[in-house]
Amino acid sequence: MAHLAVLALYTQLLTYAIQFLHVDTSDTVHKWASYSVAIAAILFTVKLLDERPSATRRRKRAAVWARVQALVRDGLRIDTPSKTTTVPAPLPDADRTEELLGVLASFPVALQHHLLGTRALPHPPLCDLLPAGYLTSLKRTEARVRFAAVHAGPSGSGSPQKPTIDGARLHANGLSSSSSSPNGNGTSNGNGNGKAPNSDDEGGDDDKSLVAPLTPSKKSNLHTPHPSNMPLALLRLLEAYIMGFVELPTDRGGWTALQGNRALDVVKGLNACLSEAEGVYADPQPMITVRLCLNVFLFVLPLWLVCLLRGWLAIFATVIVGALAKFVLEAVLSEPEATSSNHPLHKATVAMVHESLDTCPALARYYRRRLIARLGGDSHEVVELDRRIRRRDEWLPTFT
């Protein structure tokens, strides 16, 4: 609505300017306004014709996401403890199974954020699907504490390499930073005289060993609390889970070699989809977009309408045409912003997560526990998830 308000104000200012300056709109101004509208319309038409080759790119993107969805479905259908077990699996192994399902279901969401360049964490649903230990490890930092002598902040300010002095080695050589010589030097040799050791003395070699080799200063990861390639990190995590389940004996809920090979095939397929998606989405953003052409057209349209119509009628016509252009044409011909909840990728990945919750009861139980731990049992998200679970199990066949 802000665009329409600005457009109406712009049209009204044009009307007042023409009336105040007594501009004759019958011939010259009308002709130039018509030319401007025609040029803007031609520019918009050429841009639409230029967008036709992008239909092939959209089909490639849709094919990549279809393969990702198929692979996630296959991964969720892998039998997670073996049905032939006679001893129930211990609770930690059962938890690992649910964590594996959560990592697999979170891969499409992580891929969406990676391709759009948006921040994946700590926003839902990743914060409720990924293992709690993994999320904690991402928040861990090796930065120095705030009262340290040299602070390595999130911005990495300061020199990247700093010499460090080993205090224990100082005392081992009989040197102390607090002692001072009579002539003002800050150190004294082991004999007690005020002469500082130099490279010509016998202690020169020992003095050189006081300074440790240059080591890179530790930088904080607070400014990057998630990996630069989250989907690839999740694939490595999936492979670690799979190898752990394969190494477990089957009586403890481990996987057979066939199940391990099937799961590794899913990881390989997701890795191929990740590489293909990065190539398909790597096209640079065009300088002239459909949204820019529409804005140019709406900029010159009021000048043409003011020449044809008078007073409030011109403003009303401008608002009507602007509303059609912004809310109809722009929504159909251009993609929304990457951070918008109406982005097609955001809707598609949310639908994949909901499908995973509907088809995998173990994942739904795990997700529900994580939601309760974060939001509480009476939250809207938990109530909605319970409703979906009830609808899923509303009717099931019975066998006697």
**Major sheet characteristics:** 2 strands, antiparallel
The coarse silhouette is elongated
- List low-pLDDT spans: 80-91, 147-223
Radius of gyration: 33 Å
Strand content: under 5%
Query: What order do the strands of the largest sheet run in, or round the barrel if closed?
Result: 1-2
Give the topology.
Elements: H1 2-21, H2 28-50, H3 54-76, H4 91-116, H5 126-129, H6 132-139, E1 161-162, H7 167-172, H8 204-208, E2 215-216, H9 230-247, H10 257-280, H11 290-308, H12 312-333, H13 344-359, H14 361-375, H15 380-392
Antiparallel strand pairs: 1-2
Task: List its traits.
400 residues
Describe this structure as you would to a colleague.
- This protein has 400 residues and is mainly alpha-helical.
- It has a domain at 1-120 and 228-336.
- Helix content is 60%, strand content 1%.
- It has a two-stranded antiparallel sheet.
- α11 packs antiparallel against α12 (312-333).
- The longest helix has 26 residues, at 91-116.
- The relative contact order is 0.15.
- Keywords: Membrane, Signal, Transmembrane, Transmembrane helix.
- Residues 1-17 form the signal peptide.
